[in-house]
Design goal:
The chain has 127 residues and is α+β, with helices and mostly antiparallel strands. It has one domain. It contains 2 helices and 4 strands, in the order H-E-E-H-E-E. Strands 2-1-3-4 form a 4-stranded antiparallel beta sheet, with helices on one face. Strand 3 and strand 4 form a beta hairpin.
Length: 127
């Protein structure tokens, strides 16, 4: 039983550290993006078949272009944030969604959808 408790404790600690890292990353990105004049971000993501990625990042205003390194950090943050809310959505038929970040108020909204296959079987035997 000790081994199971140790695993559970390690898992909880890893989740705690990941949550702390998201808070730190959010604060750093918020400062940097506001400094560039960015007022909003839309991060569209998709996962399926044990894989996934960010499909698009839309910056508001659209006259601002992010560096490749900053765009990658925004993509990583968007994925990590959405994944923390809906873990495992990259498996099987997967899921997809959009993270919308209003930088002026530092409010994030996430709209997420999971895909699934439904089967309805009816059998009649020995009639």
């Amino acid at each position: 039983m000790t081994q199971a408790n140790d695993f559970y404790a390690q898992m909880l600690e890893a989740q705690r550290r990941a949550a702390e890292q998201r808070v730190e990353t959010r604060a750093a990105l918020l400062t940097e993006l506001r400094g560039l004049g960015v007022t909003g971000l839309d991060v569209q993501y998709e996962g399926y078949g044990d894989s996934g990625n960010v499909e698009e990042v839309v910056v508001t205003p659209d006259t601002i272009t992010l560096t490749e390194e900053l765009r990658r950090r925004v993509e990583d943050f968007g994925w990590d944030f959405a994944y923390a809310l809906s873990p495992g959505f990259e498996n099987n038929e997967g899921g997809y969604g959009e993270l919308t970040w209003a930088l002026e108020t530092d409010k994030i909204d996430v709209s997420h959808s999971n895909r699934f296959i439904e089967t309805d079987t009816t059998e009649h035997e020995g009639l």
